[in-house]
Amino acid sequence: MAAGAPRIFVSHLAGIAVFDPNGDMVGRVRDLVAMLRVSRRPPRLLGLVVELSTRRRIFLPMTRVTGIESGQVITTGVLNVRRFEQRPTERLVLGEMLDRRVRLVGSDEEVTVLDVSIQQLPARRDWEIDRVFVRRGKPGGTFRRAKGETLTVEWSAVDGFSLEEHGQGAENLLATFEQLRPADLANVLHHLSSKRRAEVASALTNERLADVLEELPEDDQIEILGKLKEERAADVLEEMDPDDAADLLGELPEDDKERLLALMQPSDAADVRRLMAYEDKTAGGLMTTEPIVLRPDATVADALARVRNPDLSPSLAAQVYVCRPPDETPTGKYLGTVHFQRLLRDPPYTLVSSMLDDALQPLAPDAALPVVAGFFATYDMVAAPVVDESGSLLGAVTVDDVLDHMLPEDWREQEFHLANGEVAHGAG
């Protein structure tokens, strides 16, 4: 749904069909999942509970929803079919919010919640519950329809949903640090007790936990992963960048590693296994297998549409790699790189194959870390292609992964004390 789109009342979503990009129906919406926040701030909508044709109910993150229109939901087509399990910090919108008795702020008047509306935030992929449709008066009995004035109010105008601003639950801690970047939240978790760290990790969404794990020291990663149920640990590994997941799995005992890989989606596991075949501090071991790959007949407009993906890191969005099919790594013949600045200088209809930087030699997968670092320093790059002997693109190395392996092992903690020391000691 585009930014600025009208709000949607959730009662209209109950039971509507969910389709993949090819138009095939994958299931129906049975509920919505939200996370409450402190100070009567509107709850964040995390995703949908979708019932498949097999009656299994799964969780569909809002980040995988590309449109809600004409009585249907369109997804990216990537679904995790593991059974939905509600977490302590999650609230079912249809199941737990509707028909609830709440109070209007500034009075003792109780009203009944009939519906709530959701809206996508401008220029972001996040969704919020923004308004509440309520009825004044006492609820009706079993055989009597309730009567009374109905009105729509802002979320902040009602009491009875939001979290209290005290207590030690993981909900409050998560709400307090919700706006932190993953690296900053990772620093907070690092300084919590082991018990509190596990509580917070358990309450985070898979996507958020994956982002945070990528920023944590190795010991914390292993500890947190070890305290998750194996199926959930596999889900979190799927959400991590393949190179980070490969690094983490490489530190686990062989039996644990193979068990988790077997639980992962086959395509995700294949990417991770391929990365684990390379030495740790080589271009192959450092690279991600998910750079932006385009065919020669793609246009500047196509490239910019891919670059706009908010899930991409700035370094991966800095350039696109032009290759012959297949488009996924390992690709067909690698033809060259197009830098983001060049995309901004040419008309949208221009073919990317006409603006290749083909003079820049790619990295070999067995290039050692000093060679990779020298490449970045010499050519002022933030990302570099990794190409095998046959000329296929295997992936891309980004400057953050190079720095991560060159800095001292405790660099995260040193940086934390410089920038965020007060936050850490106040978080536990």
TrEMBL record:
Pfam families reported for this sequence: CBS, MgtE_N, SH3_actinomycetes
Keywords, alphabetical: CBS domain
**Presence of the UniProt keyword Ligase in the record:** no
What CDD domains would the database entry show? CBS_pair_Mg_transporter
Record bears the keyword Nucleus: no
CBS domain sequence ranges: 287-354
Put simply, this protein is called: Magnesium transporter
Cite the source lineage.
Bacteria, Bacillati, Actinomycetota, Actinomycetes, Kitasatosporales
